[in-house]
Write a structure and sequence with these properties.
about 250 residues; flat; 3-stranded antiparallel sheet; 3 strands; mainly alpha; 14 helices
Length: about 250
């Protein structure tokens, strides 16, 4: 997306003419408020109401932020010499910041992780072999024995396999398409479960959340905030429950 595309995108979303959106953007950029535009600039905006004007303002801010972030992401990937035509097209086509960040994730400077430690210990070739699944003889432990290196704290085949699994986990979840699939599946199917620590100081305040469960998709914001407070005060134990085997099937198919 380019800055010049924004008026047309907003116009399509709100089912109004692009010229109306152009006029609103100009008025907003000139420092005019929504009430002023709604009351005194009807001839310019085609009599758009307050609610529509606020929607334009909100989307304008979001989409400008998206375009700016797209430019930053493209520049940073290009600096690494990893920007392909396909990746550029995907970044430019991203309509949500979350989608954009998923695309950027594999190229983002990561903090020290278990996977990065495992890579530093020379275990990435083992992870690659596990991923492509071409080895048909012997056992995983026998294959992993070649990667044992006490100097790198890989003291046994089990250590090598554990490190390779850490690399695989990070590699798999750096896949933007898979992350999108998993996010959608969690949103539709995950259940939030909470349990109360009756011995905690403020336990009475969060009594209603003892052995409580609710689908994630139906949780209202005020309940999420209350549960967050309870967890922060160590009154509640919170977990997201979902059918793990279904997740594994999705990952395997991808």
């Amino acid at each position: 997306m380019r800055i010049s595309d924004i008026p047309a995108v907003i116009a399509k979303e709100l089912s109004v003419r692009p010229q109306q959106i152009d006029a609103v953007i100009t008025l907003l950029d000139d420092g005019n408020t929504i009430p002023f535009i709604a009351r005194y600039r009807k001839e310019a905006t085609g009599s758009l109401d307050d609610e529509t004007l606020r929607s334009v303002e909100t989307r304008l801010s979001y989409l400008r932020g998206l375009v700016k972030r797209q430019e930053e992401v493209l520049a940073r990937i290009e600096e690494q010499g990893k920007l392909t035509d396909e990746l550029r097209a995907a970044v430019e086509a991203a309509e949500k910041l979350q989608t954009l960040e998923d695309l950027y994730r594999p190229y983002k400077q990561k903090k020290r992780t278990r996977a990065s430690v495992a890579r530093a210990r020379g275990l990435e070739p083992l992870a690659d072999a596990m991923l492509v699944q071409k080895e048909t003889t012997g056992t995983p432990e026998e294959y992993a024995a070649a990667f044992v290196n006490p100097a790198q704290e890989v003291r046994a085949p089990a250590d090598a396999l554990a490190g390779a699994r850490d690399i695989l986990a990070e590699t798999i979840m750096d896949d933007a398409s898979l992350r999108s699939q998993m996010r959608e599946y969690f949103w539709k199917n995950a259940v939030l479960e909470t349990a109360l620590d009756a011995a905690s100081e403020d336990a009475q305040t969060f009594q209603m959340y003892d052995k409580y469960s609710e689908p994630v998709r139906t949780l209202p914001s005020h309940r999420i905030l209350a549960i967050n407070r309870g967890e922060k005060k160590s009154c509640l134990t919170v977990r997201v429950n979902i059918e793990h085997e279904k997740n594994i099937e999705t990952i395997a198919r991808r």
